[in-house]
């Protein structure tokens, strides 16, 4: 059992694809026919390249429109197969994929199909080749792996078996339990792909939208578990047709691909209750802190902003220029160190969120799982000094610190000296952190989903397309199963959306806002107003529409308008109330939310209104207009 990847999954020349696959740790590749045909390298040269890189060739594919051809076309198909066997010999592979026939000329007659495969099996056996038959979801007569299995059984030839491809099975909703019928030694090869759940023509969906296990909506853990249950121990291979993958970093996709296979194998073994090579994913218990990096000139200004939002400076770091701000259970850390990670991050991104801390039960187990998934730990370069807690590389170069639950309070006490006589003039009613929102490059949007899902077992919730006045923004929410830790990822191809401006101004992806919980949004709004917090204006039209949509009483709507509050309700009447602060240097802002326990969204219906409001402040600075 090893990790493989089809060359079609990666961008670049065949040489680049092979180099990236080897570098990322794959043991073998599927040579996709078009990649060979378009290459200046002869098959023998490709073989040498693979050997030099430590790769084997586990499959040649696809061989199209073979079975059930009428008249002369039948012999032509068999002759064509012999030519491909020659190529395979030169490439050094003994497995070929025959995908089910899509030709309008093909006949669906079962006996003919069985006879054709028996003929092909005889020819393949003479050359030491195994043929795998794959049901394309849009095959003309055969489009279901259960049909393929019944044909393979009828052919009953040692050189003929089945190839399973998760996309074709799961896009048609074929139950994974059906794999139990298949004999493990008749599975010639396994291809894996995930995909977003779209209501779309199967061929178009498959050719453009496949993605890596852990990036889409299929239950691949169960699919792979059923395959392992048959005793199959051949390669698990990625076959990803994705428009974006064709244009973005080969290295990124190869590395993410390898991670996705480690992740899905681990998840499948867990489904089976079998031992695995890495610790189980641990969902964060909560976001423990958010760390801001601020230059000396910005520290006071940021502090003033935090005070208007109801935070109090409660402690200073014992040895560093770092302060701890609190409100309710929320910890914000402001790092003004003149050297080190926070300072480096500040040089690149400006005063911004440079790290988050997540509370977990067992930090070492998270670090071990990260290592098994190829996620890099952070270790300060050149300054091997003590680190208060372990950290991992996260979005856009920011860090994810791990705070162990059992020692969390002791850690704070050890690192920070309480500030005496803090003037606490009441807060804004904030209790905790509802969610963190990150903006990432569109090219890395799927990469970050995989990171959080594979490492922490977060679950993907509804994807939303949000309308910014300057273009479309894709948003994907991820959360721990119990909702105690929530994250949204946002990305946009349009050049001037708020997300894209954040990326341009901050030179890369990162956390853009922190959503804080309140149990009484009206009181929070009043407290914020009293403290002089700069809040986002919401247009009157919004409130007219709100009254109409939810049938709210005039005085309720008037109170919301007065508070600049956004409101949403799900179909069961569970409510969500939101307020937004103005952005600090246009780089980050705060949201305040009051979430009914059963409300699972993020006020997507309000996002367009919020983005339009933020768009109106373009060019202006807080307090200047
Ligand atoms: O889209 C296709 O034609 C195609 C070809 C080969 C495959 O293995 C596959 O899954 C799809
Ligand atoms: Mg396939």
Automatic annotation (TrEMBL):
Keyword Lyase found: yes
Pathway annotation: Aromatic compound metabolism; 3,4-dihydroxybenzoate biosynthesis
Enzyme class: lyase
Gene Ontology MF term list: 3-dehydroshikimate dehydratase activity; dioxygenase activity; metal ion binding
EC number(s) from the headed UniProt entry: 4.2.1.118
InterPro entries in the record: 4OHPhenylPyrv_dOase_N, DSD, Glyas_Bleomycin-R_OHBP_Dase, IolE/XylAMocC-like, VOC_core, Xyl_isomerase-like_sf, Xyl_isomerase-like_TIM-brl
Top-level lineage group: Bacteria
GO biological process: 3,4-dihydroxybenzoate biosynthetic process
Function: Catalyzes the conversion of 3-dehydroshikimate to protocatechuate (3,4-dihydroxybenzoate), a common intermediate of quinate and shikimate degradation pathways.
Protein name: 3-dehydroshikimate dehydratase
Protein source organism: Novosphingobium resinovorum
């Amino acid at each position: 059992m090893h990790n493989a990847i089809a060359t079609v999954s990666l961008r670049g020349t065949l040489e680049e694809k092979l180099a990236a696959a080897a570098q990322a740790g794959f043991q073998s590749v599927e040579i996709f026919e078009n990649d060979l045909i378009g290459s200046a390298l002869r098959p023998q040269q490709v073989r040498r390249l693979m050997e030099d890189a430590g790769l084997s060739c586990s499959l040649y594919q696809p061989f199209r429109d073979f079975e059930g051809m009428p008249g002369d076309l039948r012999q032509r198909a068999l002759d064509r197969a012999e030519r491909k066997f020659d190529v395979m010999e030169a490439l050094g592979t003994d497995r070929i994929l025959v995908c089910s026939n899509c030709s309008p000329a093909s006949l669906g007659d079962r006996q003919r199909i069985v006879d054709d495969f028996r003929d092909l099996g005889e020819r393949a056996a003479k050359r030491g080749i195994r043929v795998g038959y794959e049901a394309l979801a849009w095959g003309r007569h055969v489009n279901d792996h259960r049909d393929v299995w019944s044909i393979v059984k009828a052919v009953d030839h040692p050189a003929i078996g089945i190839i399973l491809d998760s996309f074709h099975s799961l896009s048609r909703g074929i139950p994974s339990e059906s794999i139990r019928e298949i004999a493990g030694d008749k599975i010639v090869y396994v291809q894996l792909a995930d995909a977003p759940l779209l209501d779309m023509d199967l061929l178009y969906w498959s050719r453009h939208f496949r993605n890596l296990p852990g990036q889409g909506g299929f239950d691949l853990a169960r699919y792979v578990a059923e395959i392992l249950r048959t005793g199959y121990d051949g390669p698990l291979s990625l076959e990803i047709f994705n428009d974006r993958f064709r244009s973005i970093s080969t290295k990124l996709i190869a590395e993410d691909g390898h991670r996705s296979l480690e992740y899905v194998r681990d998840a499948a073994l867990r489904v089976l209750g079998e031992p695995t090579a890495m610790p189980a994913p641990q969902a964060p218990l909560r976001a423990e802190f958010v760390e801001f990096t601020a230059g000396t000139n910005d520290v006071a200004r940021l502090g003033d902003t935090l005070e208007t939002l109801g935070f109090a400076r409660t402690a200073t770091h014992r040895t560093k220029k770092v302060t701890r701000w609190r409100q309710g259970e929320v910890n914000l850390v402001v790092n003004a160190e003149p050297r080190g990670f926070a300072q480096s991050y500040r040089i690149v991104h400006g005063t911004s969120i440079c790290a988050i801390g997540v509370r977990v039960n067992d930090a070492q187990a998270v670090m071990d799982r990260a290592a098994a998934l190829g996620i890099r730990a952070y270790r300060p370069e050149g300054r091997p000094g003590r680190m208060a807690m372990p950290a991992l590389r996260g979005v856009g170069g920011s860090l994810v610190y791990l705070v162990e639950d059992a020692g969390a309070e002791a850690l704070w006490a050890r690192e920070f000296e309480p500030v005496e006589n803090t003037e606490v003039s009441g807060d804004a009613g904030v209790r905790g952190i509802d969610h963190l929102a990150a903006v990432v490059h569109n090219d890395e949007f799927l990469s970050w989903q995989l990171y959080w899902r594979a490492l922490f077992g977060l679950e993907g919730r509804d994807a939303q397309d949000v309308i910014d006045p300057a273009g479309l923004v894709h948003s994907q929410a991820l959360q721990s199963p119990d909702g105690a830790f929530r994250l949204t990822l946002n990305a946009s191809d349009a050049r001037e959306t708020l997300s894209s401006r954040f990326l341009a101004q901050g030179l890369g992806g990162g956390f853009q806002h922190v959503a804080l919980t309140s149990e009484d949004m009206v009181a929070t709004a009043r407290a914020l107003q009293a403290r002089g917090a700069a809040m986002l204006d919401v247009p009157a039209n919004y409130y007219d529409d709100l009254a109409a949509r939810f049938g709210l009483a005039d005085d309720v709507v008037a109170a919301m308008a007065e508070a600049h509050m956004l409101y949403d309700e799900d179909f069961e009447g569970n409510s969500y109330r939101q307020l937004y602060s103005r952005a600090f240097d246009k780089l980050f802002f705060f949201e305040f939310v009051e979430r009914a326990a059963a409300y699972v969204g993020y006020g997507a219906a309000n996002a367009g209104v919020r983005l339009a409001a933020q768009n109106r402040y373009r060019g202006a600075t807080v307090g200047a207009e």
